[in-house]
Design a protein that fits this description.
CATH topology of the largest domain: Rossmann fold
Radius of gyration: 19 Å
Helix content: 25-40%
Strand content: 15-25%
Shape: globular
Order of helices and strands: EHHEEEEEHEHEEHEEHEHHEHEH
Protein name: Ornithine cyclodeaminase
Strand order of the largest sheet: 9-8-7-10-11-14-12-13
Organism: Planobispora takensis
Distance between the termini: 23 Å
Structural class: alpha/beta
InterPro entries: NAD(P)-bd_dom_sf, ODC_Mu_crystall, ODC_N
CATH class of the largest domain: Alpha Beta
CATH architecture of the largest domain: 3-Layer(aba) Sandwich
Number of helices: 10
Number of domains: 2
Length: 318
């Protein structure tokens, strides 16, 4: 018996098939259907001569899949992305390949979807306009803004977005109505932080990118940039006063420097970490009397949940 080769979905098809709001709903559905991120396989790294392979397999109800990403530090010298890769989605029972997806586009869609799913109960606990501050001007920074707009449309208005960058003059493309671009460490950035309802950290910084004393008690902070145990974007002081949500406590304590160092400095204990599953499924209440901080590691099940929704949409509308 012969089988047709699995289809390949590139960035444009991925974007066309699933909206940011639908990606959030796919992540929430996986958790509400009973999946526990604590059982997700840990990602593995394999060194090769010119970089690394990152291998992220997962299985949830209805599907199985693996992301294979490559990290080639010298690719910038030849005009290629530092990180590239493919996602392979399989049938859950026969393990027959169903589709190949561009891994970078999938990651760009699922990362902000996970963030917004984790904090949606805090975002929707109040009405009124939302002021957003974003540290990071790359695809993840802009992607979080797009996902927030998609999810909050019809319930809360995005009143303004401020991007904070070390060299704001290099990112003039981001300037438009309702969007400001300011330099890091200055008075404009501090003023924007004091007003912010939502703060997004999507940088490559290895040290905290803002003074958390400026963060309001009812603000939501999302940190997605650091993925190493010795790097962090958020200071320990915020952990002392925030409700801290993570995808999985074990993963966060192993991979997330923001969490690892805050625990080492006595700002929080592992027992105080709130799992994303509890936040999404209503096991805990994210009250408005203290900040909500979501620290993301980026886990394999998240890619699978979103990839499955994309391919199901394709198969339902051939």
């Amino acid at each position: 018996m012969t089988h047709a080769p699995p289809p390949y979905l590139g960035p444009e098809q991925i974007t066309a098939l699933l909206s940011p709001r639908e990606a959030v709903e796919a992540v929430e559905a996986a958790l509400r259907d009973g999946f526990d991120p604590a059982g997700d396989p840990a990602r593995s790294r394999v060194d090769v001569r010119h970089g690394q392979f990152l291998i992220m397999p997962s299985e949830i109800a209805g599907g199985a899949g693996v992301k294979i990403a490559t990290v080639a530090p010298r690719n910038g010298d030849v005009g290629l992305p530092r990180i590239q890769g493919l996602y392979v989605l399989f049938d859950a029972v026969t393990l027959t390949p169903r589709a190949l997806l561009d891994a970078s586009a999938l990651t760009a869609l699922r990362t902000p979807a996970v963030s917004v799913a984790a904090v949606r109960p805090a975002l929707t606990r109040a009405a009124g306009p939302v002021s957003v501050v974003v540290f990071g001007t790359g695809p993840q920074g802009t992607g979080h803004v797009g996902t927030l707009r998609s999810v909050l449309r019809g319930s809360r208005e995005i009143a303004g977005v401020t991007y904070v960058a070390r060299r704001p003059e290099a990112y003039a493309r981001l300037r438009q109505d309702g969007v400001a671009l300011v330099g890091s460490g200055g008075g404009e950035a501090a003023d924007a932080l004091r007003r912010a309802d939502v703060v997004v950290c999507a940088t490559s910084s290895r040290v905290p990118v803002f003074d958390s004393a400026l963060v309001r008690d009812d603000a939501v902070v999302i940190a997605v940039g650091s993925h190493e145990p010795d790097a962090r974007e958020v200071d320990a002081a915020l952990f002392r006063r925030a409700r801290v949500v993570v995808e999985d406590a074990g993963t966060a304590l192993r991979e997330c420097g923001d969490v690892v160092m805050a625990v080492e400095e006595g700002a929080i204990t592992p027992e105080c970490l709130i799992t994303m599953r509890s936040a999404v499924c209503g096991g805990v209440e994210l009250a408005a009397d203290m900040p909500v901080l979501f620290k993301s590691a980026g886990m394999s099940w998240e890619d699978l949940a979103v990839a499955g929704a994309i391919v199901s949409r394709l198969e339902d509308n051939p």
